[in-house]
Amino acid sequence: MGFRRFLIEVSRHHSQCRPIRNIYSCSYHTSLKFGGNGGLNYPIKNTTFNNPTCSMMLSRALYSSDASTIEVSPTDAAKELYDKLLKSVKEQRTAPPNNLLWSLIEKSANREDIKLLFNILENLRKFRLSNLRIFENFNDNLCREVSKACVRVEAIDLGKKTLWKHNVYGLTPSVASAHSLLLYAKEHKDVDLMVDVMKLLKANDVPLQPGTADIVFSICYETDSWELMCKYAKRFVKAGVKLRRTSFDTWMTYAAKLGDIDNLWKIEKLRSGLMKTHTIGSGFSCAKGFLLEHKPEEAAVIIQVVTQTLPEAKRPDIMAELEKMVSEWPLEVIKSWKDEDKMALAAGLQS
């Protein structure tokens, strides 16, 4: 695969970049070598391996959408607002001031408050239909803030109701509401919630947006869910969503991390049809693809192209990415390959 040749080519193309020589001199402190028993040893200098198992289990126990919920009483502030709204529509038969409902959304502080909110939304919906002959749902801003309130107090199951097309609350499903839930899923690495939200978007005919792809791809990457990323990427592309550079970067970086050359070049073909220039992420992913194909000269050329295209201020980022490419990426890609292919890959990385 020619890492030495690749580094020589990069140095030749970027002789003015002094950090290249430092990378070349230290790169094989982190190279792969064979153990006496035929297995692969990965000596890494000054590298710490984190084991997130315990913290992930705790996070899922505390924050997962499937976690049990502790029942508490409504807060006094929310109950007072709810009572005023209910009295207005049930006893006085008049439309309550808008600020009362907005205040209830803002001041909802726990799950029981959100239950009161949904109850009053249902009552307001009925009042608007029967007394005011208003058949439209509440406006999009209110619907979005309801979903945010659900996420804020971690009433995720109720938040999913904001994505129902047919509901008794007068809410209209929107991608903004979906993003609130997806960002929660991203924060807590909750793949199941992401899958549920994507199903709800499809079932309720909510159009996908570029921002949706950004969040979904990020969740898939951070939770090591390659098959899900490919599944949803196909759905985004089929729906005609114009993916952002950030989405392509995440998608291509993941493919390169796995050493999936076939998918990497398919993604690059799609990206290059939409965008003329590379980012650091897409450029280095292509360089890794060339290295996997034993083409170090082509890998060096694309690094040169990325360097020439990006502003001078990005030079430190390029050098940092190059160092990670030499010291970290080989270990990542070997880890993902089948055992029978690891020996040949390791030998190629050492050549």
Can you offer a commentary on this structure?
This protein is mostly helical and 351 residues long. It has helices at residues 3-13, 19-26, 53-63, 76-92, 98-107, 111-130, 140-152, 156-160, 175-187, 191-203, 210-222, 226-238, 245-258, 261-272, 280-292, 296-309, 315-327, 329-336, 339-350, and strands at residues 33-34, 40-41. The protein has 19 helices and two strands. A two-stranded antiparallel sheet has the order 1-2. Strand 1 and strand 2 form a beta hairpin. The chain is elongated. The N and C termini lie close together (6 Å).
**Percentage of residues assigned to helices:** 55-70%
Strand order of the largest sheet: 1-2
Specify the biggest β-sheet: 2 strands, antiparallel
Question: On the 0-100 scale, what is the average pLDDT?
Answer: 83
What's the total count of β strands? Answer: 2
Overall geometry comes to elongated
End-to-end C-alpha gap: 6 Å
Radius of gyration, CA atoms, in whole angstroms? 26 Å
- Separate helix tally: 19
**Residue windows where pLDDT falls under 50 for at least 5 positions:** 16-69
Structural class: mainly alpha
Beta-strand portion reads under 5%
- Helix and strand run: HHEEHHHHHHHHHHHHHHHHH
InterPro entries: TPR-like_helical_dom_sf (IPR011990)
